[in-house]
Amino acid sequence: IDDLANVDYSLNSFPAVFQPFIDLDLKGTVYPSGNHTGLSCVAAPFVIPDQSDSMLYLAFSEHFFQTSSFAYYTAGAFNITIAEETCSYFNISTEIFGSIIPEVGEYSVTPYPVMLKLMATEIPIISLQQDSFTVEIQGSMEVFAVLPDSTTQSLFTMNVAANTSISPNIFDHKLMGSLCLNRLQFSLAHSNVGFFEISLLENILSYILQTEVIPSANGK
User: Fold this and answer.
1) Domains of the chain in sequence order
2) What is the mean pLDDT of residues 59-76?
3) What is the pLDDT of residues 75-94, one digit of tens each?
4) Burial of 124 (0-12, 13-18, 19+ CB in 10 A)
5) Which of 2, 26, 1 is nearest to 13 (CA)?
6) How far is CA 55 from the centre of its chain?
7) Which residue has better confidence, 5 or 179?
8) Which ranges carry the Lipid-binding serum glycoprotein C-terminal domain (predicted)?
9) Buried b / exposed e across 180-201, counting CB within 10 Å, b at 16+?
C-alpha cells in the first residue's frame, strides 16, 4: 500500500463461477510493512447483495479496516506533531495558554511557542455502519514549550478520547468522504505546572485539533 503497510489479497478459496458472474473471495488482510504478523482475529464471512446492474462490485469487511488500523498503529502513523513549523496556521504560545491556565503563566513567565505531540495509546477501533463507519481513538497529548535553543520543555500531558464518523460517497466519479467529529474528551494525566481544571482547556484544544488535525486527515 505504502511504506508503512502491505496487504495480502490472496484468494481464500477457488473462484466460484456462475452463469451471470464470478465470485472472488480475497483475504484482504493488512500487515505492517516488513512484518507479516497481524491481529489474531479471524475475518467473518459476508455476502455481497445480489445485484446485477453494474459490471464490478467490491466489498470490504471490518477485518480489512481493523487490520489496517493495527498496521498503521504499529508503524506509528497515528503519532502527530503540531508546531508552528509544520502547521502554518498554528501560532499558539505559552502566553495564550497562560491567559486560560494561570499555572502555565506562572511556570513560563517568558512567552514561548507551543508544540503538541499526539499519540495513539491503543489500536483505533473501526466499526462499519449502514452508510458510514466510526473510529474510536484513545490517545495522549503532551504540550511542550519550545525554548530559544530549539529544545522543548514539557508542560503537561492529557489523555484524549475521540469518536469520529466518516461517510464515503461518490462525487464526480471520485470516492470521497466527509468526516464528523462526534466526541472529543480530555483528562489530565500529568502536569509540570501544577493541577488545573481541564475544562479550561477543552475549548481551545478542540479548536486546535479540529482546524489542524481533522482537515489534514480528511484530505488524505
Assistant:
1) 1-76 (no CATH), 78-219 (3.15.20.10)
2) 89
3) 889 998 888 766 666 677 88
4) buried
5) 26
6) 34
7) 5
8) 50-217
9) eeeebebeeeebebeebebeeb
For residue 76, CA distances in Å to 43, 94, 106, 160 come to: 24, 28, 34, 17
Give the mean pLDDT of 26-33: 86
> What are the residues facing 188 on neighbouring strands?
158
Neighbours of 24 (CB within 10 A): 13
**Smallest Cα–Cα separation from 16: which of 45, 43, 44?**
45
**C-alpha cell of residue 115:** 508544540
Taking the C-alpha atoms of residue 176 and residue 171, their distance in angstroms, rounded to an integer, is: 7
As given in the structure block, the three cell numbers for residue 34 are 516488513
How high does pLDDT run on average in the chain? 81
- By residue count, the chain amounts to 220
Q: Phi first, then psi: what are they for 138, rounded to 5°?
A: -110, 125
Parallel/antiparallel/unpaired status of strands 114-120 and 22-23: unpaired
For the question of whether the overall pTM of this predicted structure is more than 0.85, the answer is: no
Percent of the chain having pLDDT more than 90? 16
